[in-house]
Amino acid sequence: MTTFESLLAEGAAVPVEGWDFSWFAGRATEERPPWGYARMVGERMATAAVALDLQTGGGEVLATIRTAPGVLVATESWPPNLAVARRTLAPLGATVVAAADGGELPFAAESFDLVVSRHPVTTRWDEIGRVLRPGGTYLSQQVGVGSVRELTDAVMGPQPVGQGRSPGRAVAAAEAAGLEVVDLREASLRMEFGDVAAVVVFLRKVIWIVPGFTVDAYRSSLAALHARIEAEGPFVAHSTRFLIEARRPAR
């Protein structure tokens, strides 16, 4: 096989369950947000009594906390991730529950004093407001508008940029759910892809960048990307992130 074909085959063979990105070491890089989401989650978990991690993936971020609350619950929608999360979070004594990303949460009202979520596919602010106790906190790092749009456009051609993930809309939705936004931060972060195999794995793993991505469907675009990387060096894109923290007012 040609080098291009070998890279495609390699990228297509890498497992993509969970949110472990260690495979990308030496193949791709992404600048980290300055606020340190995992550290912030760890600090808040250390003082929480009952906490919930929404859309936990494989539980990789939650597993980094040093002190777990007395009751710790996580949700995940994708069956392969559920199995990974249950193994990963077992040392913390966490319960992992299957729950659709955009559906109602399977918990009673006012169940949690802390809810967290990293990169949720969708945010049900009404449900977050319902399950938070008075005085409880929601902390989330979210994907912003136009994230990695350079890669989307390179693979699919120029695409319109929607506003559904804007910080302003998140603030409005949080307030409509009766929450008070106490922190909001934004960042644009440099990404580099060193070869087309890294591009393939990323697009298989982060499925909203190129919806419906398959190697066969986008072979010609991947060939052009491969030639560009070979000629110019790593392909550069930018991810957008925002941090939002909201509280349910105390009675």
Description of the structure:
This is SAM-dependent methyltransferase. It holds the Pfam family Methyltransf_11. This protein is an alpha/beta fold and 251 residues long. The protein has one domain: Rossmann fold, CATH 3.40.50. The chain is 32% helix and 25% strand. The protein has 8 helices and 8 strands, in the order αβαββαββαβααβααβ. The protein has helices at 3-13, 37-45, 79-89, 125-131, 149-156, 167-176, 196-205, 219-232, and strands at 28-30, 50-53, 71-76, 95-98, 112-118, 132-143, 180-193, 235-247. Strands 1-7-8-6-5-2-3-4 form an 8-stranded mixed β-sheet, sandwiched between helices. α4 links the parallel β5 (112-118) and β6 (132-143).
**Average pLDDT rating:** 95
Shape: globular
Helix fraction, binned, reads 25-40%
Note the gap between the termini. Answer: 67 Å
Overall number of domains: 1
| Class from secondary-structure proportions | alpha/beta
The CATH architecture classification is: 3-Layer(aba) Sandwich
CATH class: Alpha Beta
Rounded to the nearest angstrom, the radius of gyration is 19 Å
Strand order of the largest sheet: 1-7-8-6-5-2-3-4
Q: Mind summarizing the main beta sheet?
A: 8 strands, mixed
Protein name: SAM-dependent methyltransferase
InterPro entries: 23S_rRNA_MeTrnsfrase_RlmA, Methyltransf_11, SAM-dependent_MTases_sf
Pfam families: Methyltransf_11
Organism: Longispora fulva
